[in-house]
Amino acid sequence: MAEPAAVPVPAAAAVVQTTVTELADSRVRVDVQVAPGEIEASVQRAARGLGRELKLPGFRKGKVPAPLILQRVGREAVLDGAVRDSLGGWYAEAIRTADIVPVGDPAIDLGELPEQGGALAFSIEIGVLPAAELGQYSGLEVGRREPEVADEQIEQQVEAMRERLARLETVERPAVEGDYVVVDYVGRLPSEDDSSPGETTLVPFEGGEGRDQLIELGGGNLIPGFEEGLLGAGAGETRTVQLSFPADYGNRELAGREASFEMTVKEVKAKLLPDIDEDLAIDAGFDDVGELREDIGRRLLQAEEERVQEEFREAALDAAVAGAKVPVTEELARARAGEMWERMLHSLSHRGISREGYLQVAGRSEEEILAEMIPEAERALRREAVLTAIVSAEGIEPSEQDLLEALTPSAEREGIAPEKMIEQLLADPRSAGRLDELRENLAARQAIELIVARAVPIGLEQAIAREKLWTPEREGAGVGEGGSAAGLWTPDR
According to CATH, what is the number of the domain 168-272? Predict the structure, then answer.
């Protein structure tokens, strides 16, 4: 197949100019030219940065002028550093200017460094979101269940309230499961006895001692065997138990090792739950138990209605996706899975969890996790492609008021008006992509709302029955004995 003609794309703010050439398998090549003025500005920034670090005779540190830096270090060396420092920003600007949705890591081919006054040329080859051929997305019949709240759910909430209002009372009896005990304990590990070669002795280890610790028996919060070793013990009793740390224990120095714990019970406490009566209702802010249960039922029903609506939204979107044709290649799905994995790791890092730590807890390799993510990645690509096509087909464009409302939470956190935030984003070329991304996200949400608003809810049983109907288009349809269809064929499916 002949390669399609290159399509020039207008530049934004004359920083970069791009030409997009479509390749096979949802890939493109973006040829980029960075304007000479932008190159010179980057060189000057890099020279000033070096001037803040270098110390030359006759100049105070940090006060060496840029022209002298260029003379001493050499323009080519400064240009090389400037390009490396600025390439990420030029790449982002080129992607924005080319108006493509990249998928996966790019292959960047950097050309020769330009002479003074010349433009820099480089190319990007990358996967892009495939173009969807839309099917039906209006008037879709989508299964929707009725929100219901069972009496058992209300009672579970009442019991949870009793648990929150429970109090502990000291009892004079041996501890049973469900009790709480106050204990002192000392853990010891076997260690070779220096005075008697070949023999071991028990030595306390760091972090293995506790004083006045409140422990729930049966809570499963400690290493296996610790809580069980306290069952039947009374106040003042001391017990010694032999335990083993799990092989996947967080402290690697203790993982899999045997230890001896000496535990002294100081108190046994029973958990007393309040009765389900008027006092419980009053403590919760109601006049009686009936009013309490009614309030719980209303809140549960509201939450259930929200879940049902979210399920319906997702089902409607997937119905529109099922009717469309989206050429998602295996390479694109793998690339999107990689993006999802990196985003997850970034999120985990904010909670102090490293890549290595997560893999250890998950008990799987990175390759295995990525393979498991591929189906969800393919689903995400199909959804995104269909929504992008609907946005284009329907001419969906978020209004300025939509932008203001979306930016309000961020603006409030920064203590400025949303209008001021938009002004700041527009004034900073580096933030232009943030507004574009916000507009795209808002447009995608509005496309989903359009699908949902035009969808026709039907009962779940009816929807399930339709899924079982046989049509000529469905692959792998069963055939009964004598060649008859295993299911009912309907020509209008």
Answer: 3.10.50.40
For domain 289-460, the CATH superfamily is: Trigger factor, C-terminal domain (1.10.3120.10)
Each domain of the chain, given as residue ranges in start order, spans: 7-128, 168-272, 289-460, 461-493
CATH no., domain 7-128: 3.30.70.1050
Q: Which residues are bridge partners to 137 per DSSP?
A: none
Q: What is the 3-state secondary structure (H, E, C) of 370-434?
A: HHHHHHHHHHHHHHHHHHHHHHHHHCCCCCHHHHHHHHHHHHHHHCCCHHHHHHHHHHCHHHHHH
What's the pTM value of the predicted model, to 2 decimals? 0.72
Please state the three-class secondary structure of 305-337 as a single string.
HHHHHHHHHHHHHHHHHHCCECCCCHHHHHHHH
The DSSP secondary structure of 108-161, one letter per residue, reads: EEE-PPPPTTPPEEEEEEEEEPPPPB----SS-EEE-PPP---HHHHHHHHHHH
pLDDT, tens digit, 9 for 90 and up, residues 319-356: 999 999 999 999 999 999 999 999 999 999 998 888 98
